[in-house]
Amino acid sequence: MHNKDNERIRSRLDRILLKVMKPGRYVGGEWNIIHKDWDKTDVKAAFIFPDVYEVGMSNLALRILYGLINSYDEFLCERAFAPWPDMEEKMKEEGIPLYALESFHPLKDFDVVAFTLQYELSYTNILNMLKLSEIPLRSSDRIKTDRHEFPFVIAGGPCAYNPEPIAPFVDFFLIGEGEEQFPAALHVIQENKNKGKSKIEILKELTKLQGIYVPMFYDFAYNQDGTIQEFKVEEGAPRLIKKTVMQDFSAAYFPEKVIVPYTEAVHDRVMLEVMRGCTRGCRFCQAGMIYRPLRERSPEALIEQGQRSIEATGYEEISLVSLSTSDYTCVNRVLEELMAKMQEKGVSVSLPSLRLDSFEVKIAEQVQKVRKSGLTFAPEAGTQRLRDVINKGVTEEDLLRTTEAAFRAGWSSIKLYYMIGLPAETYEDLDGIIDQARKVLEISRKAGRRGAKVTVSASSFVPKPHTPFQWEGQDSMELLKQKQEYLKKRLRDQRIKFIYHDAGTSFIEAVLAKGDRRLASLLEWVVNAGCKFDGWTEYFHLELWQRGMTETGIEPSFYANRKFDQDEILPWDHLSTGVKKSYLWGEYEKALSEETTPDCRGRCGECGVCPETAKPVRYRQID
Q1: Which of 250-254, 383-387, 509-513 bottoms out in mean pLDDT, i.e. has the lowest?
Q2: How far apart are the C-alpha atoms of 107 and 87, rounded to whole Å?
Q3: Pairing relation of β-strands 228-233 and 295-296?
Q4: Considering the domain boundaries, does residue 481 fall inside one?
Q5: Both 414 and 502 in a single domain?
Q6: Where is 480: in which H helix or E strand?
Q7: Which pLDDT band holds residue 620 (cuts at 50, 70, 90)?
Q8: Which of 277, 112, 190, 120 lies closest to 618 in space, CA to CA?
Q9: Domain with 60 in it: what CATH number?
Q10: pLDDT over 50 (residue 42)
Q11: How far apart are CA 142 and CA 149, in angstroms?
């Protein structure tokens, strides 16, 4: 039956691929793809990236977990991505269910369908992909019987730290880092399925693993004002789910033979993860909180991984990735050794994240010997007062000194990244953005770069769970649009380009980021109404979301714009990053009093992660 299914899919695909854009997204067969014998593996998992192929193929989690799961003889891991609307239409016409690229098996044939939650606006794609897979949306509908008729639908990634808006659609969430946790969960499924246990029994077994959250064992009661009154836990399930952390990061699995896509990916290169976590403590940054503690990979491991990856893939670029790569202790050594080994092969090395206060022209020149492309820096706010509020830890002097050095070294394009709508922001802070952009442009002239381009990018602040600003509300859409217009009018300089994010998408992102389980009915409504690819401007329909809120009785400002009280039960309080809630509140109070917190590499901020989860591992720079 299974073989007939995938043969039918292949034959029908032949009829439609020439009628869609970028057919290479849908055919598999890439260099380094892994084909395993379907009948000789006990547990079959599909890793699903809920966006288009070229975005998903750039995802580091996919690269790591695809290679890792397939390294086990008893497991199989294949991939699937969201079909672009033209392909979706053709698949529906031909009766083709969503399938995996390796074997062309329909997703409903797998034991586990695993979604990665990278951003809230992908939630509609997740539900739409389940529909295209002919898998019931709600977990309760998939486990009505003891038969293993449908796969376990699971999810992990940064948005899993508040999964409540999509909790009714997911059987269990992986909270934390998946390298050890994902294979452990698959072993539990393998062992208990072989014993003939039901899905409910297997889910109960899974709760014994650290970092596994099974939403159906948890429930909420609400007060009349809509806030959470009580959090209820079924007997046997943990009251607090603690994230999992890779202790020995240098020994962690690294995929050297990554798949090389046919069509160009967004990040078409080898990615070396130099460290995980960050010690800076920016108060708006969720990644900086949830990925604590800081762990560095040894320089020897990185250099060896870089060489092997280039040999296995033929890529012409290596990117050293992390939340703040220029903070990596051995960045100079790794760069110099990699450049020495790679230059003769025509391979370049890049640093995607450069901080103003740790930027060195020497490093930048090292990685851009062939072509001086643009540099991007993130002052985040226009005044020192507001940078202190968000604990950014950089000054205007850092910005001006760094951009001058870059212009004098030959760069001619600088992008400045800011956020608007930050807590305690005033129009003076917006004036500071304008002032800084003009100063940078003036510096380019003095440095002899008369044709230099300065781009100002402004995103709208979205308060995120597990950060000091989780209690904050977002500016209204109207106010955000006014601020965007204010900047737009005052940045009308022929060589200052101003770009900004749509206020409507930021608003929906905030609703979902701070939302609870009651939003599931809204998600179901908007997906049935046709919402998908909400992160793509051409497919985002705010009016559909607003209609859905009216139809389902959701008041969006209750989530996005309201300030939460200190003693309020938050929708994500049962999920622990290891960072104490009291620490986050203390940081919030310090923000409101414009008090900064130093980088915790110099002095422990006592956030609670290191004693509880892991000690930070750093490598000593050897000169």
Answers
A1: 250-254
A2: 17
A3: unpaired
A4: yes
A5: yes
A6: helix 477-490
A7: very low
A8: 277
A9: 3.40.50.280
A10: yes
A11: 8
